[in-house]
């Protein structure tokens, strides 16, 4: 089958993700690749039992900031039908194809609130480890293009991104908790008053990717917003004015 330009570019990024040596490079490559298929947000995470806190298992948070905090605060993971399906299948799936009881008001609320943040449809890739651990790369947007070989290309992107991020992040989490170089870069420029668009232009990445790095930094620093993350990063010596 003849590959589209979009699919060919995605497969090229798969190889670059596989050989990436930093978390920032993986995130930048994955984010830019997913945008070409219509995805505006993504999450790379473990899939713990429902009684555990999902936030403790997230490898990279690329959800809209307010949605992510709402999701954790309201305990949506316990009722999320897409998360539930991810724990029950080894196959990637599109959100709109998942059948769940429409009278399940809690599940319906999760999906309705996700749509409020532009996450109207999505694609999830469940991942099962050799020791039985479960993980998932889930991504969403409003106008997805998964026709032809695009779906399998996104599947490969997700698998390699998760594997590479896992291997890169594990040593960091075993040592001192710290920001990545790219997270420090974006917070440094944010501290100087630059917008996401301006930071992206300076660093050669998209404003959406800048937003993802700020969210990830905020999560590591246990802060709720951009300003608080900048202040805490300054206090901890991660960045300086």
Quick description:
With 241 residues, the chain is α+β, with helices and mostly antiparallel strands. The protein is built from 10 helices and 5 strands, in the order ααββααβαββααααα.
Please indicate the percent range of residues in DSSP E strands (runs of 2 or more).
5-15%
Distance between the termini: 54 Å
Coarse shape: globular
C-alpha-based Rg, rounded: 17 Å
- Average pLDDT metric: 87
Count of individual helical segments: 10
| Spatial strand order of the main sheet | 2-1-5-4-3
| Regions with little confidence, pLDDT below 50 for 5+ residues | none
Percent helix range: 40-55%
Q: Helices and strands: which structural class?
A: alpha+beta
The SSE string, one letter per element, is HHEEHHEHEEHHHHH
In total, how many beta strands? 5
Major pleated sheet: 5 strands, antiparallel
Tag the structure with descriptive keywords.
single chain; 241 residues; alpha+beta; five-stranded antiparallel β-sheet; 10 helices; 51% helix; 13% strand
Topology:
Blueprint: H1 5-18, H2 23-35, E1 39-46, E2 58-62, H3 65-73, H4 81-86, E3 93-94, H5 105-116, E4 121-128, E5 134-141, H6 150-174, H7 181-191, H8 196-203, H9 207-221, H10 226-236
Antiparallel strand pairs: 1-2, 1-5, 3-4, 4-5
Helix pairs in contact: 1-2, 1-6, 2-6, 7-8, 7-9, 7-10, 8-9, 9-10
């Amino acid at each position: 089958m003849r590959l589209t330009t979009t699919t060919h570019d995605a497969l090229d990024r798969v190889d670059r993700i596989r050989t990436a040596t930093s978390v920032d490079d993986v995130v930048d490559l994955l984010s830019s690749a997913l945008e070409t298929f219509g995805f505006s947000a993504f999450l790379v995470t473990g899939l713990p039992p429902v009684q555990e806190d999902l936030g403790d298992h997230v490898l990279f948070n690329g959800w809209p900031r307010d949605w992510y905090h709402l999701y954790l605060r309201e305990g949506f993971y316990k009722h999320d039908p897409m998360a539930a399906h991810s724990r029950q299948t080894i196959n990637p799936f599109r959100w709109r194809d998942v059948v769940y009881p429409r009278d399940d008001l809690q599940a319906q609320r999760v999906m309705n609130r996700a749509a409020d943040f532009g996450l109207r449809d999505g694609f999830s890739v469940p991942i099962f480890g050799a020791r039985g651990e479960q993980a998932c790369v889930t991504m969403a947007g409003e106008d997805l293009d998964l026709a032809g070989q695009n779906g399998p290309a996104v599947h490969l992107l997700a698998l390699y991104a998760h594997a590479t991020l896992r291997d890169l992040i594990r040593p960091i989490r075993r040592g001192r908790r710290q920001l990545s170089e790219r997270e420090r870069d974006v917070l440094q420029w944010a501290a100087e008053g630059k917008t996401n668009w301006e930071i992206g232009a300076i660093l050669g990445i998209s404003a959406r990717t800048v937003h993802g790095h700020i969210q990830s930094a905020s999560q590591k620093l246990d802060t709720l917003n951009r300003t608080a993350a900048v202040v805490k990063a300054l206090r901890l010596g991660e960045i300086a004015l």
